[in-house]
């Protein structure tokens, strides 16, 4: 499993790593507030200074960095740290990191994201010490902020279905059931298995914003949905090994929509699951399915 997508437009993000001889400020803050517990993962650990420090404090810690410590972490973690990583990644790369962390986190776990608040300008800049262009940007997350200073902010992330939600629309997707397993999650979307699957592995990719029509979503949210659809396809393929897929969105009651909250159906298909699969999604109007 490849947890991190690296854009060819941003090949030098690993060169922004800083050499330190002490624990980072976020780690010291999280320790002082007793927020680090259980099995710990430092995601994007750089040279591993925080990993070594936490191990010396008696914690069971795994360090992962796609460049410096590329061994894929195994199992689930109670606490995940992602410190000053997102600021040096392009938006698509950030989305992949958020999804990876959601997949590695225990259902009742906590992840902590530290981001810089002293960046004056988004974009590429010349790194004098490294002699290359590197990317930096401000990042704001829709998670609970637990610390804000002039230089940094720390967010706490919990799985979407473990959070309290106001649900004025009485919508099952605005307040997903706690016992439902999240396949993956990003800042603006999440994915679960369908409660009434058409086939094994039938998954739903759902934006967190409550809107009935796909066409009312912002470009940003649409992009997040399709990035997540690609990721869910990988997860479903690893577990169920289908022979094909149908992808669909019901928009409006005439098209069969029953829940007025946008969701993408990713339906695995298997050889022999129907007598004649020819026409695929054209089968929504049966007499139009066979067009030759």
From TrEMBL:
Secretion signal, residue range per the UniProt entry: none
GO molecular function: catalytic activity
Motif placement: Histidine triad motif: 261-265
Record-linked Pfam families: HIT (PF01230), Methyltransf_23 (PF13489)
Domain HIT, residue spans: 169-276
CDD domains membership: AdoMet_MTases
PANTHER family (UniProt xref): AP-4-A PHOSPHORYLASE, HIT FAMILY HYDROLASE
Protein name: HIT family protein
Lineage per the UniProt record: Bacteria, Bacillati, Chloroflexota, Anaerolineae, Anaerolineales
């Amino acid at each position: 499993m490849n947890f991190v997508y690296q854009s060819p437009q941003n090949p030098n993000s690993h060169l922004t790593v800083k050499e330190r001889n002490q624990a980072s400020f976020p780690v010291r803050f999280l320790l002082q507030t007793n927020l680090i517990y259980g099995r710990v993962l430092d995601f994007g650990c750089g040279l591993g200074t925080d990993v070594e420090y936490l191990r010396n404090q008696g914690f069971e810690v795994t360090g992962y960095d796609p460049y410096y410590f590329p061994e894929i972490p195994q199992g689930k973690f109670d606490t995940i740290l992602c410190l000053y990583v997102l600021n040096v990644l392009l938006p698509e790369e950030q989305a992949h990191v958020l999804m990876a962390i959601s997949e590695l986190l225990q259902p009742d776990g906590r992840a902590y994201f530290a981001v810089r608040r002293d960046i004056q300008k988004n974009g590429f800049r010349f790194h004098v010490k490294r002699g290359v262009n590197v990317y930096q940007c401000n990042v704001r997350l829709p998670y609970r902020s637990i610390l804000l200073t002039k230089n940094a902010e720390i967010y706490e992330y919990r799985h979407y279905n473990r959070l309290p939600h106001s649900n004025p629309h009485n919508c099952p997707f605005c307040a997903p059931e706690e016992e439902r397993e999240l396949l993956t999650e990003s800042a603006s979307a999440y994915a679960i298995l369908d409660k009434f699957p058409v086939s094994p592995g039938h998954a739903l990719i759902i934006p967190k914003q409550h809107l009935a029509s796909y066409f009312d979503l912002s470009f940003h949210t649409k992009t997040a949905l399709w990035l997540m659809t690609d990721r869910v396809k990988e997860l479903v393929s690893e577990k169920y090994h289908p022979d094909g897929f149908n992808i669909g969105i019901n928009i409006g009651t005439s098209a069969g929509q029953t829940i007025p909250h946008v969701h993408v159906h990713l339906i695995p298909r298997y050889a022999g699951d129907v007598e004649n699969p020819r026409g695929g999604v054209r089968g929504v109007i049966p007499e139009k399915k066979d067009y030759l």
